[in-house]
UniProtKB/TrEMBL annotation:
Coiled-coil spans in chain: none
CDD domains listed in its UniProt record: HAD_BPGM (cd02598)
Organism: Paenibacillus aceti
Record lineage: Bacteria, Bacillati, Bacillota, Bacilli, Bacillales
Entries under InterPro entries matching the protein: B-phosphoglucomutase_hydrolase, Beta-PGM, HAD-like_sf, HAD-like_SPP, HAD-SF_hydro_IA, HAD_sf, PGP-like_dom2
Family designation: Belongs to the HAD-like hydrolase superfamily. CbbY/CbbZ/Gph/YieH family.
Domain of life: Bacteria
Designated name of the protein: Beta-phosphoglucomutase
Length: 219
């Protein structure tokens, strides 16, 4: 029996992945490290601090900044990103998500957020779906980010679910790896090839086709 559904946020609940891209791209250009969408894919699901490290490494500048200067760069990126979030409204929730959450609530199956983002609670409130989640894992409350399983395991634990009876939903390869490392069934949203290679049990092109019957059939 399906005991809990553990959702990624950026790229699964809404398209904040695009805002992260815009904000990191500008930050990168401001320090002379331009990058494209393909590189941006490798930042998905990765924490703010680690994303910055990867950008600096791309430009061969990882030793050019002190810890304080890196913290300031991360702060600038987040300030820009948060300024883009004011545009979010309930209409930005991806297709099928609100319906799936209502269905889960009606059946008493907990919905949980396991996002690497510290801005997750604010985003859920802007989309007006915060009340439909039983628990939101705080990224600072676990030792390791994705692709380690910590965020997903904590989510299951908080709602008393056995990980083997949970389904995780992710758009990032690091996230699919985290779900599989947690011993859960994994649904990938997006490009089939990379997500399948990361271990997804099923890949859908978008969220519109998600429902409780489909998720239950994976167990
Ligand atoms: P923040 P997810 C991740 O969210 C994003 O995919 C990633 O691009 C971002 O750097 C990370 O959250 C941290 O976000 O800077 O808001 O704390 O996909 O795990 O929901
Ligand atoms: Mg994501």
């Amino acid at each position: 029996k399906l005991e809990a559904v553990i959702f990624d946020l950026d790229g699964v609940i809404t398209d904040t992945a695009e805002y992260h891209y815009v904000a990191w791209k500008q930050l990168g250009e401001s320090i002379g490290i331009p990058f494209d969408r393909a590189f941006n894919e490798t930042l998905k699901g990765i924490s703010r601090g680690e994303s910055l490290e990867r950008i600096l490494r791309l430009g061969g500048k990882e030793n050019d900044y002190t810890a304080e200067e890196k913290a300031e760069l991360a702060r600038q990126k987040n300030e820009h990103y948060v300024s883009l979030l004011v545009n979010l409204t309930p209409a930005d929730t991806y297709p099928g998500i609100t319906e799936l959450l209502s269905e889960l609530n009606a059946q008493g199956i907990p919905a949980v957020i396991a996002s690497a983002s510290k801005n997750a609670p604010q985003i859920l409130r802007s989309l007006e779906i915060d009340k439909l989640f039983r628990y939101v894992v705080h990224p600072d409350s676990v030792k390791q980010g994705k692709p380690a399983p910590d965020l997903f395991l904590r989510g299951a634990e908080e709602v008393g679910a056995n990980p083997q009876h949970c389904v995780g939903i992710e758009d990032a390869t690091a996230g699919i790896e985290a779900i599989k490392a947690a011993g859960m069934k994994a649904v990938g949203i997006g490009e089939a090839e990379a997500l399948k290679a990361a271990g997804a049990d099923i890949v859908l092109p978008n969220t519109a086709g998600l429902n409780v019957e489909l998720l239950s059939s994976l167990l």
